[in-house]
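[SOLVED] Predicted holo structure with pyridoxal-5'-phosphate

Edit: marking solved, answer below. Original request kept for reference. I posted the sequence and ligand SMILES and asked for the 3D complex as structure tokens.
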Amino acid sequence: MPAPFRSALDAVQPYVPGRPIEVVKRELGIEGEVIKLASNEGPFPPVPAALEAIARAASESNRYPDGSCHELRHALAARHGVGPDQIVVGNGADAVLDYLAQALYEPGDEVAYCWPSFPVYPINATKMGAVCVAAPLAGSSYDLEALAAVITPETKAVYVTNPNNPTGGMVTRDALLRFLDGLPATVLPVIDEAYFEFIDDPDYPDSSAWVSEGRRLVAIRTFSKIYGMAGLRVGYGVMPADVAVACGKVKGAFDVSQLAQVAALASLDPSVAPEIARRRAVVALGRAQLVNGLRAQGLGPWPAVANFVFVPVGDGLGLAQALERRGVIVRATAGFGDPTAIRITVGTPEENARFLSTLAEIRG
Ligand SMILES: Cc1ncc(COP(=O)(O)O)c(C=O)c1O
């Protein structure tokens, strides 16, 4: 009997997430403390206002969430200077990327991005039967000229991951604007800014501002990173209203839990801004600690601007496994397209130091 599944799924390589601490402890029989620097969440919990909002809303969990995310969409619209009909909230930015793929891709459409990059783009495109077209990176960031060169009349969407995950580098406002100006109107640019709040480089672009000026693109953001809410699952896209309408046709009715919605809303309060700035500064110090420590061990970490550092090591998987056996979980980047490196998420100063000393121990 033929398999009952869509043939497009034959080519899908499922996403391999960073392993949770409890799983690693159980599987490897580790008694002591295990630290996780593998999934770019970072060490920060939800802000106190978010935790209070969750506590207040928890007893109402017998009710379905607001499927329209009304209050959160309005708050995000005000923040980004767009209409509430231009905000799509999802169960993580991942869900918004999935809505876009479902809404846009017909079998045979081309989808362009640089590679190594975030594997969710090829997974989403492939499962819809679209054709993935990858351009190289320029060092640790997207090579926008190479990316422009792979655009064809069949290209439906182009992703720009800024900064790129897993390599950590950013493209500048001028370069991105030049790239966008050169795109045919038939291509929808999706600018993935999952790490936006970590970056203080004055040349780093806020592509949501271009949406508010009427440009046709999607800016992707998340509460998983600096807001410390990866486990709650809430992200969003800022986009033209017709793209949001199409996303609304493919999304689930109650995709975003009420606890996630109230926590995200509370995190947007202006009183939270100083804490976000503090986290940005802490991460910048931790990033420098990792970069300097890696250099001191003779390694060459790539230029990075967010809360993670990419470093070529030869056998990425072998080193990640050796670190894991010693209670330090980092990410081998094979699933992101580069088997020769690891990616380390910035942790607390103590966690960063433990990673560096464990690495030195392994490398003798
Ligand atoms: C570039 C990029 N986009 C999107 C996401 C997904 O974020 P979320 O947790 O909101 O689904 C991630 C998470 O690691 C990411 O690195």
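OP edit: Residues 40, 92-94, 118, 161, 165, 192, 194, 222, 224, 230, 235 surround pyridoxal-5'-phosphate (CB under 6 Å). Thanks to everyone who chimed in.
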